[in-house]
Design goal:
Blueprint (H helix, E strand, L loop, with lengths): L10 E5 L2 E5 L5 E2 L4 E2 L11 H9 L1 E4 L2 H11 L1 H8 L2 H19 L5 H13 L21 H6 L2 H9 L22 H14 E4 L1 E10 L8 E2 L7 E10 L5 E6 L10 H8 L4 H9 L11 H15 L7 E5 L6 H10 L4 E6 L7 H14 L7 E11 L4 H4 L9 H7 E15 L3 E6 L10 E3 L3 H6 L3 E6 L9 E6 H9 L2 H11 L9 H24 L11 H13 L26 E3 L6 E3 H8 L1
Parallel strand pairs: 7-11, 11-12
Antiparallel strand pairs: 1-2, 3-4, 5-6, 7-9, 8-9, 9-10, 12-15, 13-14, 13-16, 14-15, 17-18, 19-20
Length: 602
């Protein structure tokens, strides 16, 4: 077996013992934060991939409202669409009450907005310690930050920041570890879902807020770059990496309500579909209280908010999420609009298909690299009971033969498993085949197999014998599409961490708040790009400039502080020829030179 010797480009990432492929099939422009066509143009001859690229867009639900916010208030207007002024005013009132109790200070709106501006400005010039921003030492400090607000005022506001009313008796205080941040999280989710909806390819993956705070909401995953953090399930569109849906994994939650039920409380329009197709449907294969039900609701919300103008969406997910019952339920809730493509673990496959996949892996093990086979996906169908079995009396238990009569195995339409041999064997699942396979197993040499997977496309891989150029393999279009469109959540994290507001926090509330600040800014920038899609890139603001404009608008109403000290001797660095200024201590026992002290610190 050949080993993969790539460095940095074609990598396998391990997740719970399984492997899935990443390929450098996209290029990110750091200035515009938009995918370029460096790699997409390679697949002009593949209609399936080109159709996914063409349908990828961001549909703005209320264009007149969004355009008015941009024209009236600029970038800050788009930012306030996700973090509205009434919510910020509530946070200011809750913070002012705490600030007055601790430091006997008031917090006017202009000062609170200036605090938010400084919190965001610190991401442009990053220092590890907050006090360094007000330092007078060389190569430290920021004159602009010092001119807006004093260090003590900023630290006092930050320490008293509250995102909930100051009530002693909160029912879920000991049951929900994220009770203090539910208001702001739900507010952001509702706004993100009501402003824009991604179309075409989207990604379902986890998103992590880094924290080492003592909280039961924290999770530990040793094989991830961020090992300690609060895990969220995210739905992100491929175009502009717009964050559409976000929900925590429910770690430490003892409220008695499952995450799907809590999600339906925030989005009441999903309650009918959840009850009809998941809770009350006897034929459903998804447990109503499992994470699969939550993932189904997050994906189905795309269809619930707006039906796809192109008539089709494809959700890409890794082997932690992919399951055939999940794909079936998503199809049922969205009227066959949303399809699923993803890698899959054998532990997430039912017993009948698992044995067939194990046999296929043994068959392909001795084949050369780039070989693949296509398997039918069998599913259990419950037959309608006959009158004889329906009204049968005096029999409490059912025999195996009677159960076999009530259930039968059928071939799932347009669904199948692709067993592909790269440096290791990887299994893909999809219910977006061009047609249903007519045989239990189809080999790559058969024309029907190529037709079912929407044709073949080129994929370059490093092999042991390659030195300057990668080897080309013709693989199913499903696999190439997965490599291209599976990176939406990772790109969102990359863009967010370029100018990250999150710091090493001891409080969970500040970790979540700074994460949402960055998410609001990036979503606002994604909407800004969609509004100006016809403009050339040279005329658009970069992500850095867009963030800077928001910061300037937040701090412009605050009176500029005077940074000049009262003693003019400290404004300039003295020279050895200047006269010494002798100062005595309070006890009049020590004498020091003020000018020499300044020269030492300069």
């Amino acid at each position: 077996m050949e080993e993969d010797s790539s460095i940095g480009s074609n990598l396998y990432e391990e997740d719970d013992g399984e492997l899935f492929i990443f390929d450098d099939l996209y290029y990110c422009d750091e200035e515009s934060f938009e995918l370029t066509d460096v790699s997409i143009n390679k697949y002009d001859d593949n209609p399936y991939i080109q159709n996914l690229v063409k349908t990828a867009t961001l549909n703005i639900l209320n264009p007149s409202r969004v355009k008015k916010a941009l024209l009236d208030n600029g970038p800050l207007g788009l930012f306030n669409l996700f973090l509205s002024a009434p919510l910020l005013e509530s946070i200011r009132i809750w913070t002012e009450k705490r600030l007055y109790q601790k430091h006997n200070k008031k917090l006017p709106s202009e000062l609170f907005n200036a605090y938010l501006g400084i919190e965001l400005a610190m991401s442009l010039t990053h220092c590890n310690c907050l006090k360094d921003y007000w330092s007078n030492k060389r190569f430290l400090g920021s004159p602009d930050i010092s001119a807006v607000m004093s260090r003590n005022t900023f630290l006092h506001i930050r320490s008293c920041l509250r995102f909930y009313p100051d009530e002693e008796n909160i029912p879920v205080k000991r049951q929900d570890p994220l009770w203090h941040s539910r208001n702001i999280l739900n507010h952001f989710l509702q706004n993100a879902a009501s402003i824009a909806v991604p179309d075409g390819p989207v990604t379902l993956d986890e998103n992590t807020v880094r924290t080492k705070a003592r909280t039961q909401a924290k999770s530990y995953i040793p094989n991830k770059p961020v090992k300690f953090g609060i895990r969220f399930y995210s739905v992100v569109g491929w175009k502009y990496a717009y964050l559409y849906s976000l929900w925590d994994n429910g770690s430490g939650n003892r409220t008695g309500q499952s995450p799907p039920q809590q999600y339906c409380k925030v989005f009441g329009e999903l309650r009918n579909s959840y009850d009809k197709h998941i809770v009350l449907d006897r034929d459903t294969l998804v447990d109503p209280d499992t994470p699969s039900a939550l993932w189904t609701l997050q994906v189905a919300q795309l269809h619930q908010t707006q039906k796809s103008p192109s008539g089709k969406r494809v959700v890409f997910m890794d082997n932690f999420y992919t399951r055939h019952p999940l794909a079936q339920t998503i199809e049922k809730l969205t009227s066959d609009e949303i399809k699923v493509i993803g890698t899959i673990k054998l532990s997430n496959v039912d017993g009948v298909n698992r044995q067939r996949l194990q046999n296929a892996k043994k068959t392909i093990e001795d084949m050369p690299r780039g070989s693949w086979v296509l398997l039918q996906c069998l599913t259990v169908q419950k037959n309608k009971p006959t009158k004889a079995t329906k009204y049968k009396k005096n029999k409490t238990t059912s025999t195996r033969k009677e159960k076999d009569k009530r259930e039968s195995l059928v071939v799932a339409p347009n669904a199948g498993y692709i067993v592909y041999k790269d440096s290791k064997i990887v299994i893909f699942y999809t219910n977006d085949l061009a047609q249903t396979p007519s045989k239990p197993i189809l080999y790559s040499t058969e024309a029907e197999a190529v037709t079912c997977v929407h044709g073949l496309a080129k994929m370059k891989r490093w092999t042991k014998k390659d030195i300057y150029h990668r080897s080309e393999y013709m693989v199913p279009s499903i696999i190439v599409a997965y490599n291209i469109f599976m990176n939406s959540v990772d790109r969102f994290d990359q863009y967010r961490q370029t100018y990250i507001t999150l710091r090493r926090e001891r409080r969970v509330t500040m970790s979540i708040f700074t994460f949402l600040l960055d998410a609001c800014i990036y979503n606002a920038y994604a909407v800004y790009q969609q509004l100006n899609i016809s403009e050339p890139k040279s005329k658009l603001m970069t992500m850095k400039e867009f963030r800077r404009e928001i910061i300037v608008q937040l701090v412009e109403n605050i009176t500029t502080r005077s940074t000049q000290p009262t003693n003019t001797a400290s404004t300039t660095v003295p020279t050895p020829n200047d006269k010494h200024i002798l100062l005595t201590s309070k006890d009049k026992k020590r004498v020091s030179c003020y000018l020499c002290k300044i020269m030492d610190n300069a």
